[in-house]
Amino acid sequence: MVPNNEGKYETVTVNNPTAVYTVTVYDKITQMSFGKSDVTLNKSETYKQDVTVYPVDGVTKKEYTWVSSNKDIVSVDKSGNLKALKAGKSVITVFSTDGSEKSASFSVCVREDKAVNVRATNSGGCIIVEWQPVSGALTYDLYRASNPNEEFIKIATTNGTLYRDSSISYGKNYYYKVVVISQSGNECNSVMSDMSLGVKCELEAPQITSVKYKKGRCKIKISGAKYEGYTLYVVKNKQKVAIATINGQTANLALKKGQVLYARAFVTVDGEKIYSDYSNAKSIGKKIVKKAKSKTKKHAKKKSKKKVKKNKKRK
């Protein structure tokens, strides 16, 4: 081995009468490092980060030993290729093999799967948001926007996969996204889910459950979600005509027999009334016609009775 002018050992070829030998002399590694100290991956994602060794312009041994602190979370092969297996954290360490005992490490966090099948439905006074459960989730953060192009704002954290959003305004559209909060720490939280379809906050149509008519007055009972008020209608000339507005779910009105009654719920938003769909139809004072007994049967019964009487007299 012969040092060069800079004091470094280089490859030397030795000749003798019987053989030629090639000897590679390595510089000992003085330091190892990675460009990134923290890496985040999704499940099933692969990754590789090259290690930098010092001296940079020296001749160093390029064989290393790679180790994952949690092989169930991230696997690593002998070339430093990583694969994310499940949500959690692992530390990847590379060791020199030239006897210098140098090493370098970086942390890997594997995210939870994102929530899927996020759906929202109107439910009379609130919007119900649901999604599929994610194994390993600690909780779920729910985000909302009134326009799909706006920023989604966090509105709730929940343990379950169903949330009733009642902080809404009637007549507006709403869109939702979900973030899975990981048991392994916030670094492993999922990315935002895909956006739900937009749903409009609408009033639930009421149901007319009872109509009792007596002496020109009609007692009406309405059921369903309770709102600010209800407008009652009767059909005139094939058109629904408003006849009264009530605050509660009962009313006592002067109405005519045979009229058909409907109801709609309403709330007032910014000075304007927003209405539900129409309720079911109810007829006022509808009579139940009982079937009369057949005259032929009555006549036949009378005849048979007369015959019995005559036979008794003869005897």
SSE blueprint and pairings:
Layout: E1 2-3, E2 9-10, E3 12-15, E4 20-23, E5 31-34, E6 38-41, E7 46-48, E8 51-54, E9 64-68, E10 74-76, E11 81-84, E12 88-96, E13 103-110, E14 119-122, E15 127-130, E16 137-145, E17 153-158, E18 162-165, E19 173-182, E20 199-200, E21 207-214, E22 217-223, E23 229-236, E24 239-246, E25 250-254, E26 260-269, E27 272-275, E28 282-283, H1 295-314
What would your notes on this structure say?
The structure is a single chain. With 315 residues, this protein is mostly beta strands. Helices cover 6% and strands 47% of the residues. The protein has one helix at 295-314; strands spanning 2-3, 9-10, 12-15, 20-23, 31-34, 38-41, 46-48, 51-54, 64-68, 74-76, 81-84, 88-96, 103-110, 119-122, 127-130, 137-145, 153-158, 162-165, 173-182, 199-200, 207-214, 217-223, 229-236, 239-246, 250-254, 260-269, 272-275, 282-283. Strands 23, 24, 26, 27 and 28 form a five-stranded antiparallel sheet that branches. Strands 6-13-12-9 form a four-stranded mixed sheet, with no helix packed on it. The longest helix is centred in the C-terminal third of the chain and has 20 residues, at 295-314. It is rod-shaped and about 135 Å long. Mean pLDDT is 88; it is low at 287-292.
